[in-house]
Amino acid sequence: MNLRKRMLNDLDREIEEHIALETQDNIDRGMSPEEARYAALRKFGSVVRAKEETRAVWISVWLEELVQDIRFGLRTFRKSPVFVTVAILTLALGIGANTAIFSLIDAVMLKSLPAEDPSQLFLVRWNARNAPNLHGYMSSGDCPSDLRFGAKNPSGCSFSEPMFREFEQAKVFPGIGGFANAGTLALTGHGPATTVTGQMLSGDFFRTMGIKAAAGRLLTASDDTVSAPPVAVLNYAYWQSAFGGSQDVIGSTIELNSVPFTIVGVAEPRFNGITPGSDYDVWLTLSNDHLIGQSSLFAQTDRRNDAQQWWLAVVARVAPGTSPAQAQAVLTGLFRNGTLHGDQPLFNSGEAPAKPQPIIHGQLRRPDPGSRPSGSPNALVRLKPLQPPSAPGPTTAIPQADNPEITLVSAQEGLGGIRSNFSNPLYVMMMAVGIILLIACANVAGLMLARASARRKEMAVRLALGASRVRVVRQLLTESVMLSAFGGILGVLVAYWGARSIVAFVSHNSRSEGFGFHVSIDLRILVFTLAISVFSGILFGLAPALRSVRASVAPALKEGEASSNAPKRRGARWFNINNTLVVSQMALAMVLLVGAGLLVRTLQNLRNIDVGFDSHNILIFSLNPELAGYKHAQVNSFYRDLQGRFTETPGVRSASYSMMPLLSGGMMMTAFHWPGTPQEKMSESDVLHVGPNFFETMHISLLQGRNFGTSDFAAASASLTPGSNKVRTPVIVNRAFVQKYLDQENPIGKQFGEFAGDGFRPPSPGYEIVGVVNDTKYGNLRRAVSPMMFTPQTSGAAAFELRTAADPQAVLPAIRKVMAEVNANMPLFNVQTESQQIDRILFQERLVARLATLFSILALVLASIGLYGLLSYEVSRRRREIGIRMALGAQTGDVMRLVVKQGIALAVVGAVLGIGAAIAAARYLSSMLYEVRGHDPGTVIAVALLLVVVSLVASVLPAKRATRVDPMVTLRYE
Amino acid sequence: MSTKEQNERIELLQGTLDLLILRTLLLGPAHGHAIAKAIEFRSDEVLQVEHGSLYPALHRLVKRRWISVEEGTSENNRLAKFYRLTPKGKNQLALETSKWGKLTAAIAQILRATE
Q1: Is the CB of A53 less than 8 angstroms away from the CB of B53?
Q2: Torsion of Cα atoms, A847 then A848 then A851 then A855, to 10°
Q3: What is the CA radius of gyration of chain B?
Q4: Could you say which of A23, A224, A236, A527 would form a disulfide bridge with A269 (CB–CB 3.0 to 4.6 Å)?
Q5: Greatest mean pLDDT range, A19-33, A408-422, A760-774
Q6: Chain A contacts of B51, Cβ < 8 Å?
Q7: Interchain CB distance below 8 Å, B62 and A17
Q8: CB contact burial A330-358 (16+ within 10 A = b; e otherwise)
């Protein structure tokens, strides 16, 4: 190695000297110096080639030696198949677990967007000092919006369609596309009624992204006009599964929410939606927004022409080689102009007090229970009304300008989608598998050390015969890297299987039906596997390799194996590399065990939460009669009719409905004025519209007052009718509401939320409390119970809740039959039991707890194998000592204690060190825990006991072997 | 390597240069330029080494431990690498020389027979 370096370093100088000598010779022969030098160079030939060939000599020699080392390694492996098998399996598990988790990280976090030249794509975001004055704001979950009630410095990535069209016409980009979630659509005209997920795209979207058609054609700008016939493009996978990939589908018609759409083509397979993790079945143009009724859910006006409805995400392609800064400046100009100087100023320009506009649809915005924004729990429809930018008043003081701006951020980073839901657990899991790899390496290093002692003689012979130490270390390292390479190959198989199982678990349990991320073993993952294989091979191989050549040659040759039993200081005997390796394995396993324990406790805590209602034996399904053509006024009686039919169905105890089920992951909030507080101050409460018998069906106890009666539904219906503003909406509130707002006051009959109207919002008669019910959890389990009001539901989409006598799934066929009788064209969305729904909102916790448990068991098993291996080795090494002890009268128990004592001592030291590390590491888990602290003593003690018990088992086996030592045989041996 | 006249160019068998280097070093250690000169001189300038090709060969021989390297001073009074035949290299030279003898004899015999 050194020789090679020295030779190559001096090569330049050597060649220079050579040419100089030749030149001198030529001069001596009578040439002119110039001629002489030229002749010398010609004679030498190409200097570059000479250098290259010389270097190649060394490389080929290096390769020859490598082949030699590999051959030799394979020969030695054949001699010790047990060692090789254990080592390779251990490494396969360690490397496989890492590759599996990395392949998930790769799929979720690192994969580039499914578009041509994704680095040219930029997401358009806005920000300002105060929230804009809007009728509605919707984020499809493609990118994070930070727009909270009254909060300063909001930002977001949704725009109104008029704004988007201005961006489009500015022609500062080679392409720009707008898109929005179309939610779940009822599909009819192709077999039985079913549902699909859809996305609306601007006409130029596919061209901008560079997506190709797999069949037919994609959407174009001419499709995106109101007069164009409605057309749809299918997802490739959906085309395969629902239409069998048939070409005949192109040109045929399907009905989405009762509107006929002609299928014009299929997008290329890699495209499921531009945002990572999205998974849409069909794509429509923005021009169809109103047709499929998506718009009407949020406002009665067509949101397409409303500059105060922001709902479109916008991605632009920046021409290669140009900076996005210039385009950003142009967009900022357009955005400022549109929002400050349009018909309705949406931001405060700082020039004059802004005139806020009425929020047309009142304070509540209704979500669509059928719409499932990307299946993300974070993407729930934002229902908080937006506060006007500033309170209008007679004051002439000029308020601070809101300074709205546009920024272009790389679409790869900006379009996070549901990535953020997975990133935290994935990184925690990556840490866990990293720890497993360390344990596996320590384990194999221990095995290698034991083997190295057995090979001391071999090494000594090779050194004595003149092999350089470097060469021997290289040989040993080659062997370890070979082991880990085999482990890596097997590990890829482990990873393939593991990643598939995790994806299967995710897609069965997450709130969405599909897992939009496509996990595959690609080049990046193979490079990762190769890198960690080589890294771990060197990691576990280096120490044993260095140790075996450090040994002095003479004693090893003279005394053989027994020499390792040379007397040492007592301290040194305990603090050696073997013990250290086992202790660190135990400590690392302890870290994983504590982490898994905490996550399992979290899951238990969440499962044991008192949700405030009886979640067993409830069947839930959603439907939206308005999408099937029912008019607003008909919906109420339609629901009553269904409710009656369901209640009479055998097996159903009672039936009710609400705008969305409890614990669905989604929730609604509203704001109102509470009497006695300052006029401009708004109070908040969760809100849910419910049907008759809701509380009886859900087993929510009524604490005070009365349930909703027929007159309450009539009153609620009347309060929605424009012009009849005299009737207060009757509400039932929960205990938390009473505690927050009423204190000692009698809640029954309390009126609030009355609003006289102020020129930009219509007057509202407000609410009157008629009853108080027990607290329940609403959106999800982790959110603390908040003040909540229930109001009578009279229209809109609804989720039915059926309380059944036995298994809720059993009544489903009967329910479907009822639905078929009433209306065959109305699909049921999200059919599930309440328990299944709770499982789904806990899916991330369950996934993490399950994986953490699996990994910690793996870690414990590996660490125990390490301990077992060390003790077995010690027993065989100390056979003579044990034989002498037994000859001197030691009993079986004494011998066993000798071995077990060492095992337990190592485990306890490892556990204690591990507890410290675990408590430090648990801080990274804290955001994932629920009602359990990072140093929860119960968990720590329980897993420490588990570790010690398992170590005991691992120690007893070699101890048993020690007792079988025959003193006569061992004393005669050697 | 080529003969002086282009039309008399002879393609030498692979490894021949190695053999020539070993043979040259049998007389004593030498640096690269001296080796090249010696080969040319001893072949009556029939064989001319392309000097650049000398170095890969020297390195190959060093790596095989047939020759060793030591620092010395050249005629120019500058530091230079001197190559010296090792005992291993001496054995190799004997082996290669006898092989070469057999090879040329055999080829000569065949050529005579076909003439």
Answers
A1: yes
A2: 180
A3: 16
A4: A236
A5: A19-33
A6: 18, 22, 43-45
A7: no
A8: ebbebbbebbbeeeebbbbbeeebbebbb
Cβ-based interface (< 8 Å): residues of A facing B: 3-4, 7, 10-11, 13-15, 17-18, 20-22, 24-25, 43-47, 49-51, 53-54, 56-58, 61
Amino acid present at A171: K
How large a percentage of chain A has pLDDT more than 70?
88
Residue type, A763: P
CA distance A482 to chain B (A): 25
Give the closest residue to A282 by CA, choosing from A367, A186, A415, A192.
A186
**Nearest CA-CA distance, residue B96 and chain A, Å:** 20
Residue A974 has pLDDT above 60, yes or no: no
**Inter-chain CB proximity A10 and B32 less than 8 Å:** no
Size of interface A-B (CB pairs under 8 A): 73
Residues of chain B below pLDDT 50: 1-11
Whether B51 and A22 lie within 8 Å, measured CB to CB: yes
Structure tokens that stand for A104 in this block: 């998930």
Calculated CA dihedral for residues A165, A167, A171, A173, nearest 10 degrees: -120
- Write down the ipTM of this complex: 0.83
Choose, out of B51, B69, B73, the residue to mutate when testing the contact with A (most A CBs < 10 Å).
B51
In single-letter form, the type of residue at position A280 comes to Y
- Selected for mutation to probe chain A from B59, B76, B79 (highest A CB count within 10 Å) is B59
Cβ-Cβ contacts under 8 Å, A21 against chain B: 33, 74-76
Which chain B residue is nearest to residue A7, measuring alpha carbons? Answer: B59
| Chain-centre distance for alpha carbon A567 | 55
Residue A7 has its nearest CB partner, among B37, B52, B69, at B69
Phi and psi at A826, nearest 5°, equal: -115, 100
Instruction: Determine, for residues B76 and A44 on separate chains, whether the beta-carbon distance falls below 8 Å.
Output: no
pLDDT given for residue A720 in this prediction: 65
Q: Is A833 helix (H, G, I), strand (E, B) or coil?
A: strand
In this complex, do B80 and A58 lie within 8 Å of one another by their Cβ atoms?
Answer: no
Radius of gyration of chain A, Cα coordinates, nearest whole angstrom:
37
What is the reported pLDDT for A568?
46
Q: Is the pLDDT assigned to residue A571 strictly greater than 80?
A: no
**What CA–CA distances, in Å, run from A223 to A217, A226, A229, A259?**
11, 8, 7, 16
The answer to whether A154 touches A128, Cβ cutoff 8 Å, is: yes
User: What HEC string does chain B produce?
Assistant: CECCCHHHCCCCCCCHHHHHHHHHHCCCCECHHHHHHHHHHHCCCCCECCHHHHHHHHHHHHHCCCEEEEEEECCCCCEEEEEEECHHHHHHHHHHHHHHHHHHHHHHHHHHHHC
Q: Mean pLDDT lowest for which of A422-426, A656-660, B103-107?
A: A422-426
Q: Which of B52, B53, B59 sits opposite A7 (nearest CB)?
A: B59
Determine contact, residues A663/A780, Cβ cutoff 8 Å. Answer: yes
pLDDT mean across residues, chain A: 83
Do the chains contact at A56 and B33, CB–CB below 8 Å? no
Q: How confident is the model at residue A331 (pLDDT cuts 50, 70, 90)?
A: very high
- Give kind and range of the element (H or E) at residue A582: helix A577-607
